[in-house]
From TrEMBL:
InterPro entries found in the cross-reference section: YlxR, YlxR-like_sf, YlxR_dom
Name assigned to this protein: YlxR domain-containing protein
Gene3D superfamilies: YlxR-like (3.30.1230.10)
NCBIfam families for this protein: RNA_bind_RnpM (NF047356)
Alphabetical list of Pfam families matching this protein: YlxR
YlxR domain mapped to chain residues: 7-80
């Protein structure tokens, strides 16, 4: 049996397989989006597919740690929408 590599959520630090987490990518133009195909280029970070972890990530400055920059309110709102669609 193949052992799945684990990734940890940038908000709660729980270790899970890639399938159980969402990959957030910072694209070259500086925008953030969810990488649902797993093939987007850019710096990525993993997060649980729930809004509570997104809020936690924001509060804990997890985006700054993962991407070395503060995420804009606009990008955050976009991610919130994308996660909300998946989480429902
Ligand atoms: Zn989490």
């Amino acid at each position: 049996m193949k052992v799945e590599p684990l990734r940890s959520c940038i908000a709660c630090n729980e270790k899970k397989t890639k399938k159980e987490l969402l990959r957030i990518v910072r694209e070259e133009d500086g925008s953030y989006s969810l990488d649902l195909s797993g093939r987007k280029n850019g710096r990525g970070a993993y997060i649980c597919p729930k809004l509570s972890c997104l809020e936690k990530a924001e509060k804990r400055k997890a985006f700054f740690r993962a991407f070395k920059e503060n995420i804009s309110e606009e990008s955050l709102a976009k991610l919130r929408e994308e996660i909300r669609e998946i989480a429902e």
